[in-house]
Amino acid sequence: MELIAKGAEAEIYLGEFLGVKAVYKRRISKRYRNPLIDRRINLERTLKEAKVMFSSIREGVRTPALYYVNLREYTLIMEYVEGLPLSKLTPSLLLDYVRDAGRMSALMHRGNIYHGDLTLNNVIASKEGAFIIDFGLSGFSNDVEDIATDIHTMLRSIESIFPSISESVKDVFLSGYKEVAGSETEDIVTRVKEIRLRGRYVEERRNKPHNVE
Amino acid sequence: MKVLGIESTAHTFGVGIACDEEPYILSNVKDTFVPKEGGMKPGEVARHHSEVAPDIVVDALSKAGVTISSVDGIAISLGPGLGPVLRVGATVARALALKYRKPLIPVNHGIGHIEIGRLTTESNDPLILYLSGGNTIITVLRERRYRILGETLDIALGNMIDVFVREVGLAPPYVKAGKHMIDVCAEKGSELVELPYVVKGQDMSFSGLLTAALRATKNHNLNDVCFSLREIAFDMLIEASERALSLTGKREILVVGGVAASQSLKEKLDVLSEERDVILKIVSPEFAGDNGAMIAYAGLLLLKHGVRINIEESYVRPRWRIEEVDIPWS
Fold first, then answer.
1. What integer pLDDT is reported at residue A200 of this predicted model?
2. Structure pTM?
3. Do A37 and B79 touch (CB under 8 A)?
4. Closest chain A residue to the Cα of B248, Cα to Cα
5. Considering CB atoms only, which of B134, B200, B238 is closest to A149?
6. Which domains are delineated in chain B?
């Protein structure tokens, strides 16, 4: 097997499963982490990720198909999706995929699934369209807070990766989202704004004029 | 070129002098308010600062061997911070700038922490962890701004730990002999208590952890709760940092702010940097906590790029985010 990526919490290998090209995602133990916390987190996340991926496919979200779950080695074996992450695309190619990423995100949210780490890095531009990958921090929820947090992390990744064109890229993502989610998008966007204002030291949180004393 | 900088955003009043050639920092004098009980009350802190301010300004000048007339600008941390406390420093800075006809330079406190860290550790294009009582921020410099990749969604890590030790009766004082009370308490614990671990992408949430930990003290050994709280909070931060490393591909980590002095955090960061083969740089204790030298040095960089502010417009900015500041240097 060939190591193709080393993410923050897992190693991704390219190999074969029953004669088909497959991705092996193995969660790695962290030496900096307390061993008990480490085991608890790796087990919980592997299990959760498998469940969510399965549901996500059922909702019609482009998600890698799940082939096998090995809980003892914290390993998921899944379909190999060919393509670059959106964060690596040139601005000219980016917009169509970003719109599709918006649609896929809305489909996922409609199925009460939140991703937990929705960024340009975790959407693959494949021939078929935008694939959502890495459900390592995902879960089930119909709380607008969890859904809005996904949108918040996506918008912020757009801002930090494509700062000069971020406004138009964000608009395209949200318009794709709206194609599926319709009028619910408004509530979610409102909550995203609230989340941002909740951050520390947000200037707009106090709109009264500054005092000079 | 020399700049006098004044820090007055929270519990520390500090004055430093920076110049644009070796050794860069000519003096760094400070006095930190320590409450007898409870946390920081802005009014009490402001009174403390206005009492110590004159002596600290004079002391910083004499330690640097510089006269006020020979400095090229007065830098002031206008925010973020506590309004009444910010106003003390701002008043002193405005008075000095007017009386001695010096340009007044507006400095964001967080930019001060970051720039003094970059200067003193000679770091090169790092992923920056800005960790203090009020801030838990993961940031990188890109296209003239410090872009925030991750931060706390509610309270800061440092604040969470301070509140915990205070609520369980271990503080104040929060630090004894250079060691935070959470470390003193945690070293006697070993059993891991189940507490919430919340990482969302590169963002973290600490408020649920604080509530659960306070509740856990009712039926668990306090030392074990301290140990678990610290383990979980730091593990969350390191996981978020590792994600940011993998997102940006940075080869260096720079840690700045008061929490940078934590030994147990350093041990975990050492393991992370070894695992990911990156260089770890931590600002020295002298420049980790709030200080005037960092304001002077950031002010010097700003003045060199023509940044100054009219006295009439020099409002304090209690919620001034680092990402709002244009960074003309690289």
1. 47
2. 0.82
3. no
4. A161
5. B200
6. 2-113+290-324 (3.30.420.40), 125-287 (3.30.420.40)
